[in-house]
Amino acid sequence: MRIQLVLPSLCSLVLASCGGVGAHRATDAGVVMCTTDDQKSLAIADALDAYAAGDLEVFAGLHAPNVKFLWGTREAGTEFGATQWRQGITTQQRLFKDIVLVDRQITTGRYPDGNVWTAVWCEWTGRNSVTDARSRYLLHLSYKWDGDKVAEEYGFFDATRYQNELKAAGF
């Protein structure tokens, strides 16, 4: 199946660019230190496990007070806050059951400009509670850290198809 082949290839390419645990990658601006078993990567892994189990409480301790979310775009004015995020994820968990993040890859990079980002690549799957159809989305999430809190989250997936699923289910 095409989607099953693309995700592992994409993850391999991205992880190879970091070079694996504790690897360094040279850029024009300096050296990026990438890890997969650090505190930030493990915190995101734990949060995503909780999310898949329907528990959003872990995010209250993970998100900075003024965390901003940008899904599908980086355009100014399209960001939203934690309240809207929680409403959207709660709706998602009402519509979908059996949520699983397949072939999940998580890596954290420390960049020369001082920024720290954790990136996630996976295939999101869930069963639509209205139609009972299985839904699949290739998903990329990036978390920008401010100390030990997530200050920004970027999400990239087929947002148009997702909105169409919500509308078709009456959400």
Description of the molecule:
By secondary structure, the protein is an alpha+beta fold. 36% of the residues lie in helices and 40% in strands. A seven-stranded mixed sheet has the order 1-2-4-5-6-7-3, with helices on both faces. The longest helix has 17 residues, at 2-18. The two termini are 30 Å apart. Mean pLDDT is 84; it is low at 1-17.
Main sheet, how many strands, which sense, barrel? Answer: 7 strands, mixed
Class by SSE composition: alpha+beta
Number of helices: 5
Distance between the termini: 30 Å
Low-confidence stretches: 1-17
Strand order of the largest sheet: 1-2-4-5-6-7-3
Strand/helix succession: HEEHHEHEEEEH
What is Rg? 16 Å
Question: How many strand elements?
Answer: 7
- Can you give the helix content as a percent range? 25-40%
Mean pLDDT: 84
Principal-axis shape:
globular
Strand percentage lies at 35-45%
Structural key phrases:
36% helix, 171 residues, 5 helices, 7-stranded mixed sheet
Brief write-up:
The chain has helices at 2-18, 39-52, 57-62, 82-95, 159-168; strands at 23-27, 30-35, 63-71, 96-110, 116-128, 134-146, 149-156.
Please give the structural blueprint.
Layout: H1 2-18, E1 23-27, E2 30-35, H2 39-52, H3 57-62, E3 63-71, H4 82-95, E4 96-110, E5 116-128, E6 134-146, E7 149-156, H5 159-168
Parallel strand pairs: 3-7
Antiparallel strand pairs: 1-2, 2-4, 4-5, 5-6, 6-7
